[in-house]
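User: Predict the structure for this protein chain, please.
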Amino acid sequence: MTAPAPVPAVTGRCFGDGDPLYERYHDEEWGVPVHGEHALLERLALEGFQSGLAWITILRKRPAFRAAFADFDAETVAAFDDDDVERLMADASIVRNRAKIEATIANARALRDLHAAGGSLDAVIWSHAPDRSAWVRPASWEDVPGLSPESTALAKELKRLGFRFVGPTTAYAAMQACGVVDDHLASCPSVAPLG
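Assistant: Here is the predicted structure, written as structure tokens:
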């Protein structure tokens, strides 16, 4: 009996080659459409925490963030108080930035209020998806924008709804993370056919 041929390693990703956690994130999550209030609140929160840091830092801390923020359940996090802020500020397993912690709590409250008004974060975020009819897949990172008219509009709408720490650049990063835009480079092995 002949042993099966080894599966060739995937290389040439947009990012993440060489780190199994980063590779999985790239291959299985980044640019893949995300729906659902918990998942979207988590992505917004983590993109806010990432501001000024490397994404791999946040990715490595994601299990701790999920534990610290009750799996990003909006109702639970919206009820966090000053004692919870101090608890989170003392938690070395997450990024201890008071403004980002307070913004995450404020965003859970904004989401709770949005739900009370009959809306959803899913509808808000996906209503800002760009028109893909003239879209061209980026050839290099220089072709990937840091923000877009749609992310600027999304940031403005989120702020109007009471969300914090969601400027146009953070909104664009969340759009990438949630698959609202797919900025995998043309040469990336994760590229899916357009359709």
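The longest helix spans residues 98-116.
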